[in-house]
Amino acid sequence: MTAIFTAAFVFALQADDGAATTGSPVSGGSSALMDMLHHIGPIAMFVMVVLLVASLYSWTVIFSKLSTFGRVTAESRKFVHSFRKASRLQEVSALADTYKQSPLAQVFVDVYETYKRQTGGTGKPRNMTALERSAHTAASESITHLERRMTWLATIAATSPFVGLFGTVMGVVDAFHGLGTAGAATLRAVAPGISEALITTAAGLFVAVPAVVAYNQFTARLRVMASATDDFCRELLNSLDEIPERAPRAAAEEAERSLYK
User: Which tens digits make up the pLDDT trace of 43-101?
Assistant: First the structure.
């Protein structure tokens, strides 16, 4: 397709034969771009509108994710620091609601609720397998929540060049149609179609490149967060497993008293 486009353009330039010797000079810079935008056809205009909507949505997702990931990272660091400083799980539970954006806090809340159902809030857990399942489920749900709308970034990044390519194809078709209608191979005949092809191609790349970069960066940050969440799950489960038996001395004294009754 690129070869056809180039051949048509070169052919038109060679056949023009320097005929365009009159007329106003072509304005440069942004004025020339605005002039081309005002004269593009309906198909190219439709492609530009689609790409504009895709670009606006992708930038909305990008800024939203940047804000979300920033809050999640900051709150996760603070929560881990508070968790390691606390001497009792009740203290951490009271702080967990302060860090609702952190997936680590969500993991702790779910695991602690399961732990309280088993023991009432004190003593050694009776079923570590149930706590492990609760931790893994909470971690998976938290990371899945952070992945929301990421698929749209991937979709926009993958499809925008093809949407722009559709406008390119239609612009080349319009250029050849202009050659046939004019009856002579002049630059004036092919210029509208060529301008449409160039504009839609550039617009497709303009939309796709930021979406690709953002998607790759966010995916890398999600992997880091998922790894940190898994590490915290293991740390939390180890802490629960190391809790001593509840009041072993009191239980032994009670059993001894019962023998003499």
Answer: 878 888 999 999 999 999 999 999 999 999 999 999 999 898 887 888 888 888 888 88
Question: What are the boundaries of each domain within the chain?
Answer: 2-7+32-87+149-242
pTM: 0.73
Burial class from Cβ neighbours inside 10 Å (0-12, 13-18, 19+) for residue 51 reads buried
Residue 260 structure tokens: 């003499």
Q: In the block, which residue shows the tokens 């749900």?
A: 141
Q: Are 167 and 196 in contact (CB under 8 A)?
A: yes
Dump pLDDT digits (tens) for 105-159: 999 999 999 888 888 777 788 888 889 999 999 999 999 999 999 999 999 999 9
Residue with tokens 């799980």: 89
Q: How far apart are CA 190 and CA 114, in angstroms?
A: 72
- Residue 104's identity, in one-letter code, is L
Closest CA to 237 of 142, 127, 143: 127
**What is the structure's pLDDT at 26?**
39
- Spatial separation of the C-alpha atoms in residues 90 and 94, rounded to whole Å: 6
The length of the chain, given as a count of residues: 261
